[in-house]
Amino acid sequence: MATRLSHPLRHHLLDPNHRTNKPLRVRKFSIKNEKLEPVEPHKMVMKVKQTLEKDYKNLPVGRNGRDDEEMILWFLKDRKFDIEESVSKLTKAIKWRQEFKVSELSEESVERLARTGKAFVHDCLDVNGMPVLVVVASKHFPDKEDQIENEKLCVFLIEKALSRLPDGKEEILGIFDFRGFGTENSDFEFLRFLFDVFYYYYPKRLGQVLFVDTPFLFFPLWQLIKPLLRSYASLVRFCSADTVRKEYFTETTVPTNFRD
């Protein structure tokens, strides 16, 4: 099967709704004194915030910036409250957002590709209350489209899906509809970009990924992609369109392209 060769990814978030009257204490391993020390997450957020202010003054501030406490706490959770790892991953994410100009993405800026229907954020949540990002693989033609435009549409839709998270929810559902998929739709490079984006810049935001009605010719590509997915590989479920209809939506909320 023909696949496109990859290249290095060119662009190098606590629950905000969680409330409790008792301070949450986290056991953190200290390398220096080799013992577990209870640390309050808020203090760790302040530590990261101070480190970023001291060592990364050039990073932007504000929402999704170096002083965004919600974002800092999310990355601390992702890195199991390891300060150094959180700072490292967080700085890369903030720099990427700046270089990729995420804040400048809009409906208008991705309109041309969005009109193809190749990917969209579903109007309704799934039965678990997760926003839904749908990708229609048969409408993706990598040889005829600009890779940067595809990446911009991808990131815009991730941001749009996350903006629809209900109170108490943290993750989104990704659905890849492979019905009608052919070799001309195969794109190793884009799939790697997509999962790298989730791993590095939107950690723990992908709750589950459904690969729907995948044809036999997709599996060679899957063997290339699977090792790159890291922990996300366990989130992938191969299923039928009927499973999507019956297990993830109601009759009134199922996406149009999955209705009988």
Keywords:
single chain, 260 residues, two-stranded antiparallel ribbon, 8 helices, disordered N terminus
Q: What is the C-alpha radius of gyration, as a whole number of Å? A: 20 Å
Order of helices and strands: EEHHHHEEHEHEHEH
Determine the mean pLDDT.
87
Assess the beta-strand content as a share of residues. Answer: 5-15%
- Sheet having the most strands: 5 strands, mixed
**Strand arrangement in the largest pleated sheet:** 3-4-5-6-7
What does this structure look like?
The structure is a single chain. With 260 residues, the protein is α/β, with parallel strands linked by helices. Helices cover 35% and strands 13% of the residues. It is built from eight helices and seven strands, in the order ββααααββαβαβαβα. The chain has helices at residues 41-55, 69-78, 83-100, 111-114, 147-163, 188-200, 219-225, 241-248; strands at 26-30, 35-39, 119-121, 132-136, 172-177, 206-212, 236-239. Strands 3-4-5-6-7 form a five-stranded mixed beta sheet. Helix 5 links the parallel strand 4 and strand 5 (172-177). Helix 1 (41-55) packs across helix 2, helix 2 packs across helix 3 (83-100) and helix 5 (147-163) runs parallel beside helix 6. The longest helix is centred in the middle third of the chain and has 18 residues, at 83-100. 26% of the residues are buried.
Brief summary:
It is built from eight helices and seven strands, in the order ββααααββαβαβαβα. With 260 residues, it is α/β, with parallel strands linked by helices. The protein has a five-stranded mixed β-sheet. The chain has a two-stranded antiparallel ribbon with strand order 1-2.
